[in-house]
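An instance follows:
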Amino acid sequence: MTIRKLWTYSMLALMVISCNKKEKQQNTPPNFKYLNYSKNVLNYIGEPKTKNDRSSLVFSDQGAWFGYCLKNTSSRELAHSGPFLMTQENGVWLSPALTRLHLSQNGKPISAVSSSIKEGEKYSLASHLQQEFTSNDFLITQQLVFLNEKTALHKTRVKNNSNQNQTIEYWLDGSLFKNDMELTYNRNLITITSNKSSAIGYIKLPKEMTSLIIKDTFNYETNKIQFTLPPNTEKEITFSHSFLFPSQTWKTEDKLIKKSEFDSVLKARKKIKNTELSSIFNNLNPQIHHEASPTIISKAHLTLQNNWRTPAGELKHAGLFPSYHYEWFHGFWSWDSWKHAVGLSFYNIDLAKDQIRAMYDYQQDNGFIIDCIYRDTLIEKHNTRDTKPPLSAWAVMNIYKKDKDLLFIKEMYPKILKYHNWWYKDRDFDGDGLCEYGSTDGSLVAAKWESGMDNAIRFDNSKLLQKNETTYSLNQESVDLNAYLYAEKIYLSEMAKLMKRSNEANKLKKDAHSIKLRIQEQFFDKHDGWFYDTSIDGSKFIKGEGSEGWTALWAKVASDEQAETVIKKMLDPTKFYTKVPFQTMSADHAKFDPLNGYWRGPNWLDQAYFGVKGLRNYGYHSEANAATLKILNGAEGLLKKGPSIRENYHPITGQGLHAKNFSWSAAHIMMLLTNEIY
């Protein structure tokens, strides 16, 4: 594709840039009550030192594959840090500041106030980033908002607060980290290309920027523009950054771009974010009151927003990364996706549905759903070695209960049923109606991964059994897997009933009843009062109390008597009722090691949620409410503004562990605090 064609496409994409003098409008601002809860709930302040610096959080929106930070509070630079590119490798910073604005009078820079920045002068909302600077004569406001998934708009408003005319010069410059990217220039459009990504970046400059110097392809500087501001008037300086994949076009948004202005775009984003947050807040469980609920809900919402990616490359539908912040989590995982979809269903039904579709796009002919998919398979190959626990029917029914879209049920039912049946064909080694985790390539590690609980102690002595060249099972039957499959039969039965397929609904319900009895009989140890995995023939328990034990309560497959004994241990402070309750294994086990054991002790909020939901399923509502508050209070930084939501937490100290900005943790926070359906 030629530079001329690329320029033509981008011209359609980018908002018409204006630098007109405007009188400030005195309209009464709308009341964005819920949006205001999101102010500074995550700390987006930071300045990357290298392209791989992951010390800062990144703000993005609308599924964009790039994001930004606010400059440090001591900085008076008129710029945003970044962008951080998720189009490139597994996430790199393109620049410390791709476009900086300079203002001067008589050859001297206009200085912002020298005192420390006050709260509110640099801040974030779910809708945008904003920073303000003041000098003796000027108020300077800089805002960043995403027009769409391809373009971020940057506007600086310079107001003359003095009582006399002010003559000012302004210009722009910027630089790249010295990597494989380079700059070229055509009229007032800068193009950024790389030999490591098919995505192309653009900087659209104000129209009066008629000349530009590019230094060694990594740095640029524009010509200087002079203007005069009368007292109490403003000038707006607007530019944009865009990053496009080859398949992306702008035809559907051409009219919007030509007619819209920055303020109208920002107002629309504020309205959308306020509506999304109000949808979550209006579903809060009134029995769980915490003064920090607005903070944690807003933080969870923003976490999912920042991990949202639109279709690109191999990803045919939109969905969420587990964490953009961790370089190996730039893809979609099946188990994560089902959980993300339930969280998204509280405020963005369309995205929730697409998250489900994204994984089913790669369903194989035999029904198998692969573990994870990536945009760029030159960087990471799709993982077809294993799948993940079957929770997609649970996710679909949660979505359906919110919007009653029968067409979505009809779309997903045959696909989920095919996947469900696959488990009994390829993961029931001895044909006894109870399934095992396994792999397609004969690797033991992939079989453990298939559980989602990679290095749990129950797999310490596991071995593989081969059925054929692509079908391997562990030599144990897992209680959680069969509980999930029981629940899935119930959900599929409900779907079949909605579609008036009564025979299928009745058969699924009958099969569910049969497996329920099998689970109660085989996996429950009456002596210990706990559900365990067993040997494949069901003759021996694989001991070690772990969170898989209360999956039977989440699925409502345990008897009342069994549930009572499990709950007694769950509420024991020496076992699971720790500072952050319901962790992955009992605190009194010899192998309990949260700091060194990914699934050998840390609290994962999905497992904690399954535990809380298990309590509710058997009528322990006050205990469930208390446990929820204990989880929120115990997990480090969860209720405070600034810190991100972590992948998991140390159950004894509350310390946040592993990846930051973790999507399924955020999704399950919403489930813990709301009136969830399932």
Summary: Residues 406-426 form the longest helix (21 residues). Residues 1-26, 251-259 have pLDDT under 50 and may be disordered. The chain is about 30% helix and 20% strand. The first strand starts at residue 21 and ends at 22.
